[in-house]
């Protein structure tokens, strides 16, 4: 009986900590509007692919209404297709400390939401900076005590904002293009050690049941 309790306890503790601390993968497929202006992404299909682990981080600030997290521990890229001038995969950087990952909980005028950090991509000679992608959620999505950690989200769980991509070449005007999110998800990325531990705990439970 004690072994059963220990096995159950380890599973509960494991899944609880995994839900709060597991790295998450953020994917969004977008379509950029077709512009007359010379923008490298106009009319293109875009895929943002980010992985972020908040577990080892300390929030920049936190209150009952929102938690701001640093963009460190974020890796990612954007894949561009359908643009003759810019097809390819481009690494993302996160240059703005004032526009980090932010999680809102019942915040006035915002409700529950996840704000992506502002991103930057170097596409040929153009420096491309993004606006913040805002994921609006049901008001009960985040709850409990702060700090608020990111959680998995499906496309249908949320309203996904447009993203503006502002492109600038040296000595040329700044051009922006809006892109609409057509599919997206935020999913857990289980670590190998976590998967192995959960497998051992489940095997222990199965062995106890067989002996009973």
Question: What would your notes on this structure say?
Answer:
- This protein has 212 residues and is α+β, with helices and mostly antiparallel strands.
- 19% of the residues lie in helices and 40% in strands.
- The protein has helices spanning 2-21, 192-211, and strands spanning 24-32, 45-52, 61-62, 66-69, 74-81, 88-91, 101-107, 111-115, 120-123, 126-130, 134-137, 153-154, 159-160, 163-168, 174-188.
- The strands form two sheets. Strands 1, 2, 5, 6, 9, 10, 12, 14 and 15 form a nine-stranded antiparallel beta sheet that branches. The protein has a six-stranded antiparallel beta sheet with strand order 3-4-7-8-11-13, with no helix packed on it.
- Helix 1 runs antiparallel to helix 2.
- It starts with a helix and ends with a helix.
Task: Write down the oligomeric state.
Answer: single chain
Write the element-wise H/E pattern from the N-terminal end onward. Answer: HEEEEEEEEEEEEEEEH
Q: Into which percent range does the helicity of residues fall?
A: 10-25%
Structural class: alpha+beta
Distance between the termini: 10 Å
List the helices and strands and how they pair.
Blueprint: H1 2-21, E1 24-32, E2 45-52, E3 61-62, E4 66-69, E5 74-81, E6 88-91, E7 101-107, E8 111-115, E9 120-123, E10 126-130, E11 134-137, E12 153-154, E13 159-160, E14 163-168, E15 174-188, H2 192-211
Antiparallel strand pairs: 1-2, 1-15, 2-5, 3-4, 4-7, 5-6, 7-8, 8-11, 9-10, 10-14, 11-13, 12-15, 14-15
Spell out the key features of this protein:
single chain, 212 residues, alpha+beta, 2 domains, six-stranded antiparallel β-sheet, 2 helices, 19% helix, 40% strand, elongated, disordered N terminus, disordered C terminus
């Amino acid at each position: 009986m004690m072994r059963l309790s220990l096995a159950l306890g380890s599973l509960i503790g494991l899944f609880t900590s995994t839900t709060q601390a597991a790295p998450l993968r953020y994917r969004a497929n977008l379509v950029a509007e077709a512009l007359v202006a010379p923008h490298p992404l106009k009319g293109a299909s875009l895929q943002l692919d980010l992985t972020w682990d908040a577990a080892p981080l300390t929030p920049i600030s936190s209150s009952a209404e929102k938690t701001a997290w640093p963009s460190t521990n974020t890796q990612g890229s954007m894949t561009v297709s359908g643009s003759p001038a810019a097809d390819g995969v481009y690494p993302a950087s996160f240059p703005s400390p004032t526009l980090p990952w932010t999680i809102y909980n019942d915040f006035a005028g915002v409700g529950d939401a996840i704000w992506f950090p502002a991103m930057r991509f170097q596409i040929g000679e153009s420096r491309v900076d993004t606006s913040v992608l805002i994921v609006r959620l049901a008001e009960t999505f985040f709850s409990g005590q702060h700090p608020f950690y990111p959680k998995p989200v499906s496309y249908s769980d949320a309203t996904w904002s447009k993203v503006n991509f502002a492109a600038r070449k040296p000595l040329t005007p700044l051009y922006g293009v809006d892109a609409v999110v057509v599919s997206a998800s935020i999913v857990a990325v289980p670590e190998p050690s976590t998967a192995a531990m959960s497998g051992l705990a489940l095997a222990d439970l199965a062995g106890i049941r067989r002996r009973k």
